[in-house]
Amino acid sequence: MTGLIGSDVPLAERYDLALVDLDGVAYRGHDPIDGASQGLAGARANGMRLVFITNNASREPESVAAQLSGLGIPTEPVEVMTAAQAAAGVLATRLSPGAKVLVVGGAGLVTAVRAAGFVVVTSADDKPDAVAQGFAPELGWTQLAEAAYAVERGAWHVASNLDLSLPTARGFAPGNGSLVAAVQAATGVVPDSAGKPAPTMYRLAVERAGSDRPLVVGDRLDTDLAGARAAGYPGLHVLTGVSSGRDAVLAGAHERPDYLGADLMSLLVAHPVPERGADGWWATRGASARVTDGRLELARSGEGVDAQMDLLRSACMAAWEAVDAGLELAADSVPELGVAAP
């Protein structure tokens, strides 16, 4: 069974590098997340290095680092890995320096592609060898059409990421994946993707940092944690963003986290591992769960954040055991668990 693991020491001591997602983990839009700056400062104090990983390809590392620093999380540009940098890395696997790349995206993608030694062009008539596509709020039909023309004529299509939605202060807006889908629909060509859940960014960041004990930290199961599984790195799912505790209980094996935390303060504590009793109940410090006749049953052991998280851990293990054994879990028997993001 693909399940949770435990750590008898704080995660910041067990792992030497945290690959930290941005929106929903380190901040929410333009606002700080409670516990983020304290948790990351404590992790650094324990010797853990940080690299911030983002599927956003429109911004340059300097801009991201400045935003984090302004929110009380001192960050250098070298501690940021963007999907634009990952896309440039993917391009370099097949193209030689000097190759022409039609960039459909923001300044971050333009900078990354040029830094990798490629010639940036803006028209399909320039006969580009590849199209690099990333999100930028100013993109419109004209740019998408150029991408479609180039791909139709044989250019290699590389997307910075395939996130269908993008969190904003007003809600969820179409993400790069939605824009890429328009080009794919027009051409019938399936693009390669550099961003999460592909493991490219994680592996590039680990290689650059020289880490041998990395930990992925994210809020989205379908990108952050699925990417961790794809890369073979342990993952911590924090409940301050998109995916909820209930989502974790219902997650497929390819998206499951190894650890669960309410927020980034969970880097500074040990993580108990649920234990299975002979009676079929999974228990974490007294908070228990089991699946009977396809329905999740819960037994709470107290109130507060720790008790809620322990119940979530037990629920995950009970549900995952049942599903992995071939049983069907009734989704309506799974309530919202853990600590929900405000």
UniProtKB/TrEMBL annotation:
It comes from Pengzhenrongella sicca. Keywords: Hydrolase. Pfam families: Hydrolase_6, Hydrolase_like. One of its GO terms (cellular component) is cytoplasm. This is HAD-IIA family hydrolase. The keyword Hydrolase applies. GO terms for molecular function: phosphatase activity.
